[in-house]
């Protein structure tokens, strides 16, 4: 995985895990990779993955079944949606709005481009 410099690595790994869950690659109640397995896959220190997993447990996205491993929670997708939506609105949307304003982009153009993006990608 290619990491960006502008965001903590453990948060980027959290985004990766959340994306796997939202795309259905890691369905609810499925066991997820161990700390060691994901650390090897991501080529990071296991402590970084542990920090990621701690965050996702706090957000009720994953749960630890003692002696068995970590699993995706039943309501992981809705919890991820709330978490990522808040993150997007608080951190990214102000920059998007600033650029829309500075570049004088019309909302109709945005809607058309959004509709095209959804049609081509989903």
From TrEMBL:
Source taxonomy: Bacteria, Pseudomonadati, Bacteroidota, Sphingobacteriia, Sphingobacteriales
PANTHER family from the UniProt entry: GNTR-FAMILY TRANSCRIPTIONAL REGULATOR (PTHR38445:SF10), HTH-TYPE TRANSCRIPTIONAL REPRESSOR YTRA (PTHR38445)
Cross-referenced Pfam families: GntR (PF00392)
Coiled coil (residue ranges): none
CDD domains: WHTH_GntR (cd07377)
InterPro entries per UniProt: Tscrpt_reg_HTH_GntR, WH-like_DNA-bd_sf, WH_DNA-bd_sf
Protein name per its UniProtKB record: GntR family transcriptional regulator
Molecular function via GO: DNA binding; DNA-binding transcription factor activity
Domain annotation HTH gntR-type: ranges: 7-75
Keywords: DNA-binding, Transcription, Transcription regulation
Keyword NAD: no
Organism: Pedobacter chitinilyticus
